[in-house]
Amino acid sequence: MSEPTPRKPTRKPVRLCVRCCLVTDAPVVVAEVHQNSGPGWNMYACPKCAPHFPPVPDVIDLFPSGRGGDRDGAE
C-alpha cells in the first residue's frame, strides 16, 4: 500500500482592518459592497474594531415584503 500524500497546512485569512488599517489574521466582515455590474466585495475589520460597525443586514430583509410574504406585504 502507498502512503497518502501529506496535505499542505491551510493558510489563515489575512485582511486589512478598514478602521485602524492594521493587518489582522482574524478578520470580521463589517460591510458588503454590492455593484450593478461585476462582483461586489466584503469589507473587514479586526475583532477589536468590529463592534464599532453596525451589524450587516440580511439582503432579503431589505425588501419591503420581508421573508415569505408576497409583494403587497401579506403573509
Written description of the protein model:
The chain is an all-beta fold. It contains no helices and 4 strands. The protein has a domain at 15-55. β3 (28-33) and β4 form a beta hairpin. The model has no long low-confidence stretch (mean pLDDT 84).
Task: Furnish the topology, listing elements before pairings.
Layout: E1 15-16, E2 23-24, E3 28-33, E4 41-45
Antiparallel strand pairs: 1-2, 3-4
CA gyration radius, whole angstroms: 19 Å
Number of helices: 0
In sequence order, what are the helices and strands, one letter per element? EEEE
Percent strand equals 15-25%
Brief write-up:
This protein has no helices and four strands.
Keyword list:
mainly beta, two-stranded antiparallel ribbon, 20% strand, 75 residues, 0% helix, two-stranded antiparallel sheet, extended
